[in-house]
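Suppose you are handed only these lines of text.
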Amino acid sequence: MADTPPATRTSPRVLCIAGSPRRHGNSEQLVDACVRGVAAEGGTPTKLVVVEYKIKPCQGCNACSLTGECVIRDRMNEVYPMLDEADAIVVGSPVFFATVPAVLKALYDRCQPYWARTHVLGEPPRTPRRPGALLLVRGGGDPFGFQAAVYTTKSVFAVLGLDYTRELKEEGPDSPSDMGRHPEALARAEEVGRSIVRSAKGE
Ligand SMILES: Cc1cc2nc3c(=O)[nH]c(=O)nc-3n(C[C@H](O)[C@H](O)[C@H](O)COP(=O)(O)O)c2cc1C
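From them, the structure of the protein bound to flavin mononucleotide can be written out as follows.
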């Protein structure tokens, strides 16, 4: 996969987003492993637990197509600077009905101002592009897989100026204690953290 390094930094800031409504569940355990990897490689991780922010859904008012800003006043206003200032972003999420859960989808949809700025207001796309990664877990037992969650995330990464450079897809863990039986997935999540720091450093 393409991996375009952003400006070189000695300690890249990596935003690690935990997208499940369930605290300390399987996807958050992957995010925590990734955070450890980021720190071990000399990066600066920030963990964002989406459910704690109570992000309201996009209301489709299109005000952002006029001003480039969202009119909703909630804690998404704390998230926008985190998205802007990160040198790399990792999203960890469970699969819910084939795609990402509503709490994470609300964050994704509230990225519409980024789309409006480039596609309606004529602002240039963000450069340099940054590396992005997706860590997915699903219980399994339905035929629809990971693909819808991947496409949804790729669509958001595109407007955030992120290259989709790494992914982890783990099938099987359902109850939170299940992840302990998937140590290789945790090790891969940690390596995603390490390697995305190397990319963000331009290595
Ligand atoms: C509302 C809901 C919808 C789900 N939909 C799917 C699905 O479509 N496919 C699947 O494989 N697992 C599905 N699952 C199972 C979760 O992906 C699984 O429990 C996962 O480990 C939860 O991760 P978490 O602990 O990070 O929340 C669903 C679970 C819930 C609660």
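What can we learn from it? Residues 54 and 92 are 17 Å apart (CA to CA). Helices lie at 26-40, 64-67, 76-85, 102-109, 112-119, 147-160, 183-200.
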